[in-house]
Each structure stands twice: as structure tokens, then as C-alpha cells.
């Protein structure tokens, strides 16, 4: 009974070694040059882990996002990880809310624009160009009238 188990284990090991080496051991065990596959055919066949057809870089899209996910550009990947960590700390640990964050960022942007436009005269630079937004009077009056009539 132990001989049968030993043969089964050996055949299992042979099958595993076949898969790893990529050629069939049962076909021939001679070392003649005729039986060996050519180098070009071996180079053309690439062995990938878990039998994948495409590289992981292509699976992730093959662009900059794949480089970030696979840490090929370490500075950008570390920056993305840092930003994600800061966002997680703000929202999860400090219980900060998205609306509060958006309002604080808008207030900061307005303060920076105000300081920049006032400091531009002292440092002789051109002030920031902020486009002028004009809302037509008629649609606003129609909207107000619709709100007023619907609330009565």
C-alpha cells in the first residue's frame, strides 16, 4: 500500500514540475537537440502567475492610474496615499463633514483671492482676472414669482 502512495506522490510531483517547467516530461527524457524547443518559441510564450492572459498593468488600464496602483511612480503613489489618509482622518476620526469642508475651502479661496488682488498693487503684478457674472433680471423675477405663487 505504501508503494502505491509513493508512486502517487511521485506522479503528483512530476505533474507539478511539468506545469512549472512548461514542458511535458513524459514525451522524452533524452537531451538531444532535436527534442528541445527553439529559443524563439520559448521567448514568445511568457509564463504568468495564476495563468493570466494579460499583464496586471494592462488590467488596471495601462496608463498613469496603473502606474499609481502598482507603485511605479513612487512620489505620486505616496502622495495619493497621503491624501487618502488625510481624507480618512478628517472624515472618520475627526468626524468632519463634507459640506463643512467645502465651505471652509471656498472661504479660504475667497480670502486668498482678496489678499492676492490687494497685494498685486504693492508688488506691481497684475491682479487675478475674475470673470464677471451677470444674471439676467427676467428669469430671476419669474423664478421668484413662481416661488411666491406656489407658497400661497
Structural class: mainly alpha
Q: Radius of gyration from the CA trace?
A: 34 Å
Helix content: 55-70%
Portion of residues in beta strands equals under 5%
Question: In total, how many beta strands?
Answer: 0
* Low-confidence segments: 24-33
Give me the number of helical elements.
Answer: 7
Q: Strand-and-helix sequence, N→C?
A: HHHHHHH
Multimerization state: single chain
Question: What is the average of the pLDDT values?
Answer: 79
State the shape: elongated
**N-C termini distance:** 95 Å
What does the main sheet amount to?
Answer: none
3D structure, described in words:
The chain crosses the membrane at residues 76-91, 97-116. Pfam families: Reticulon. Keywords: Endoplasmic reticulum, Membrane, Transmembrane, Transmembrane helix. By secondary structure, this protein is mostly helical. Among the domains are: 54-96, no CATH class; 97-127. It has 7 helices and no strands.
